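Technical note accompanying the year-one report. For the benefit of new consortium partners, we illustrate the data format agreed upon in the data management plan: each record pairs a sequence with a structure-token string. No post-processing was applied to the example shown here.
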Amino acid sequence: MTRLPRVAKHLAEHGLVADAGLLVALERGDTQARALVQHAVRRGRQLQVPTSALAQVWRNGATQAELARALNQAHMHDLTTDAAKQVGHLLDEHSTSDIVDAHVATTWASVGGAVATSDPDELAALGVTSIIAI
């Protein structure tokens, strides 16, 4: 994982966009993932969560208390009609088909900051330039 001081400037200015990998890490109580989110929140930045990434991870709220706590502090980015069109355009532009990765990338493009992901190569291929590998 990228060390926190190296990403502090991005997080302080914009925030942190989550992909499904970060959400899974939070769900499992990963201390580095939790520290990363807390780092952003302490700087007044909400965790930015594309709802498609949440859908990929959410199964049973009763057993996902850690994830539910993190979501209480998050700003959700819905896959609206306009967002879906942006995602589709990005998929076409890069000849790929992963809707969740593309939704994460378009969310990042709209809010900035850094993307915390377990799939850095896929996000980089979609044009994301500020990536924290978890």
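Partners are asked to follow this layout when depositing records. The chain has one domain: 4-133.
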